[in-house]
Specification:
Low-confidence stretches: none
CATH architecture: Orthogonal Bundle
Mean pLDDT: 90
CATH superfamily: NusB-like
Keywords: RNA-binding, Transcription, Transcription antitermination, Transcription regulation
Family: Belongs to the NusB family.
Largest sheet: none
CATH topology: N-utilizing Substance Protein B Homolog, Chain A
Order of helices and strands: HHHHHHH
Number of helices: 7
GO cellular component, one term: cytosol
Strand content: under 5%
Helix content: over 70%
InterPro entries: NusB-like_sf, NusB_fam, NusB_RsmB_TIM44
Number of strands: 0
CATH class: Mainly Alpha
Function: Involved in transcription antitermination. Required for transcription of ribosomal RNA (rRNA) genes. Binds specifically to the boxA antiterminator sequence of the ribosomal RNA (rrn) operons.
Radius of gyration: 14 Å
């Protein structure tokens, strides 16, 4: 597993904890520390994880708006917590992080969804992020 893949997994798990526990009731920094301590105590790319989470949190309203717009059959609160937070990271990387190529952001999100989500999660994440990407291409972005 590459460092960036592991970092995205840790970011997803941290956001999952934050979301599962009611968002405002969880210190995201503590959630990150807990995930590192339990799943990757020797991992040395904490800066990437913190950057993904900070960027996602900074744009959370816009990101959730995109998810709502492109997952038309699923209200945001009905998307599983795992899929919702994988999508949040994917949308953040796709729209707000110029250092990550779009196809890398989409592929990483799909792989994490296949690992942590349900049987249909990979296809669902691919469908939502793929639709966003196609619209960005049409607009020339």
């Amino acid at each position: 597993m590459s460092n960036r893949h592991l970092a995205r997994t840790i970011a997803m798990q941290s956001l999952f904890l934050w979301d599962f526990n009611g968002k405002q009731n969880v210190n995201i920094e503590q959630a990150i520390k807990d995930v590192f301590a339990n799943f990757a105590p020797q991992f040395n790319d904490q800066g990437f994880v913190q950057g993904v989470i900070a960027g996602t949190m900074e744009h959370i309203d816009e990101i959730d708006g995109y998810i709502t717009k492109y997952a038309t059959e699923w209200p945001l609160d009905q998307i599983t917590i795992v899929d919702r937070n994988i999508l949040r990271i994917g949308v953040y990387e796709l729209l707000f992080n110029d250092d990550i190529p779009a196809k890398v952001a989409i592929n990483e999100a799909i792989e994490i969804a296949k690992t942590f989500g349900s049987e249909a999660s990979g296809k669902f994440v691919n469908g939502v992020l793929g639709a966003i990407y196609k619209d960005l291409e049409k607009k020339g972005e």
